[in-house]
Each structure stands twice: as structure tokens, then as C-alpha cells.
């Protein structure tokens, strides 16, 4: 006999339509990304995630079991979304030959800034290597990205290392929220222009700022 999916009368829904359990799960994971990305694993609470998702805290716990399980789900979601974007960029045609695959993948990584908290959540996960469950998931995910560059893109080890290093630099800049100093600090302005040569106006628009802290 199967148990019914947990229900929550506090879940925000469209009038006349009840969300499925999978839709609710996705809703909560997206909210969790913003909270974990802003506050980190230790600083975030399931109550904060529930408020961000518009559901009750007991519902979050019933659906995921614990904050650790919820964080693991956000890691899996982030890595799946990241690799899906990379694979779409890899498969995209470039008839003019002006945007090589490396550039397309780099732009796909930058575009994911629009998924608020994704880069920061992964960055937090990579710092939790000593946590038995989270560290294992973060290591496996990091290797998945490495193998994508080596096996699917066909990069050599040095090229793959450069991609990962540049990605970590971008994630660090997002987490530092130094976008507030763009235009007033010459060094930070130069750094932004070097890292985002083709998407700078868009990046400046979507990057989280200090006043966006949850």
C-alpha cells in the first residue's frame, strides 16, 4: 500500500489548480537555492526556505526529511542544470564559426547567473568536503564536470583545468558581491571587464548585490 504524497494547505497555487508533488518539490528547491546561496549551509534554515517558497516549514521537512537532504537535492539540481546548459551549448550549431565551443560553454555558465543562488550553492558545497554526505556529493559533482570537459568536449587536462579555474573565479566574484564596486573601484572594474567581455551589461544587471541578502 503506497502512502499519499504530503500535502500542505499553505502552498501557494494558481487559482483552481493544485500543484503536483513534483512541482512543489521543484518550487522548494528553487527557493532553497536562493537561501543556501545567500546564507550558506550552516546559516540557512528550513524555515527560511519555507518562507521563500511560500509553504509551511513542516511541509518542507515532510517532503525532504532534513536540511541536509534538502541541500543535497539543491546540489543535484544545480549540477544537472549546469551540465544541461553545457551540453546544449556543446550541441548548438555555429555555422559562422565565430563562436567556438569553449566560448559557447563559457557564456552558458555566465547565463546561469539568472538561476539565483546556483553558483553560490555549488561554491558552498565545495567548501564542505569534511561533511560525510555533502562532501561526497560535492566531490562526485566536481568530477562529473571534469569528465564532461574531458570526455564530451574533448579537452586535454590543461584546457579542462583552465575551464574549471575560470568558473571558480566567476563563482567567487558572485559570492563576494563585488558588483557594487563596479565603476568606482578601478581594479574591480578591470576584473569584471576581463571576466565578462561579451555579457558585461547583462551580468551587471542580474548579479546579486548586498541589499539582496535574505
TrEMBL record:
Keyword line: DNA-binding
GO molecular function: DNA-binding transcription factor activity; transcription cis-regulatory region binding
Iron-sulfur listed as a keyword: no
Chain ranges of the HTH tetR-type domain: 22-82
DNA-binding region range list: 45-64
Pfam family, one: TetR_N
Protein's UniProt name: HTH-type transcriptional regulator BetI
Region (Disordered) location: 1-21
Organism listed in the record: Microbacterium azadirachtae
